[in-house]
Amino acid sequence: MCGIVGYAGRDRCVEVLMEGLGHLEYRGYDSAGLALQTEGRIERIREVGRLENLARTIARRNGDLSPLRTGVGHTRWATHGRPTEENAHPQLGGNGTVAVVHNGIIENFAELKEELQGRGFRFRSETDTEVMAHLIAERVDGGESLREALAGVLRQLEGTFAVAALSAGEPGKVVAARHQSPLVVGFGEGENFLASAVQALLGETSQFLHVENGEIVEVTDSSVEVFTPEGEHVERESFEVDWEAEAVELGGYRDYMLKEIHEQPAALGATLLGRIDVDGAVDLSEIDLDFTDTDRVVVVACGTAYHAGLLGKHAIEKLARIPVEVEIASEYRYADPIGNESTLVVAISQSGETTDTLAAIQEARRFGAKVLAVTNTRGSLITREADAVLLTKAGPEICVASTKAFACQVAVLDLLALQLARARGVMPEEALREAGRGLRLAPEKVEETIQGLGERVGEAAAVFEAARCSLFLGRGISYPVALEGALKLKEISYLPSEGYPSGEMKHGPIALVDEYCPVVAILGDGVVREKTISNVEETVARGANVIAVAREGDRAAQRISGVILPVPEAPELVSPLVASVPLQLLAHHVATDRGLDVDKPRNLAKSVTVE
Ligand code: F6R
Question: How far is the CA of 602 from the centre of ligand 1 (A)?
Answer without folding.
Answer: 15
